[in-house]
Design goal:
The chain is mostly beta strands. The chain contains 1 helix and 11 strands, in the order E-E-E-H-E-E-E-E-E-E-E-E. Strands 2, 4, 5, 6, 9, 10 and 11 form a 7-stranded mixed beta sheet that branches. It has a 4-stranded antiparallel beta sheet with strand order 1-3-8-7, with no helix packed on it. 31% of the residues are buried.
Length: 118
């Protein structure tokens, strides 16, 4: 089980930016470097969906709805991952979850609420 701690959610207006952070404070550095890290989001009544993921080597995958607006990054030595969200839209409103996939096993953070509204 990997402890993941998220921060950075909040209420913003459409068009604004927000940056989410996720850390794995208890992860052993050498093993964190093997994790595929990601951000997912979920709204009530819908399935959790992939927002973005990043391998230890920096290869990224983005959900279609966020391509060109969101950027995922990581710093392995700090055991941290960030999600930079620009040009936010009301439909980006959701609970965002940090994910660490460790050899096929998913580990989740507690989630952080992002609300985009005028």
């Amino acid at each position: 089980q990997v402890l993941l701690e998220e921060s950075g959610g909040g209420l913003v207006q459409p068009g604004e930016s927000l940056r989410l952070a996720c850390s794995a404070p208890r992860a052993i550095l050498s093993t964190f470097n093997t994790y595929v890290m990601g951000w997912y989001r979920q709204v009530p009544g819908k399935q959790r969906e992939l927002v973005a993921s990043i391998t230890a080597g920096g290869n990224t995958v983005y959900g279609d709805s966020v391509k060109g607006r969101f950027t995922i990054s990581r710093n392995n030595s700090r055991k941290k991952v960030w999600l930079q969200m620009n040009s936010l839209k009301p439909e980006d409103t959701a609970v965002y979850y940090c994910n660490a996939n460790v050899f096929g096993e998913d580990n989740w953070g507690q989630g952080t609420q992002v609300t985009v509204a005028s």
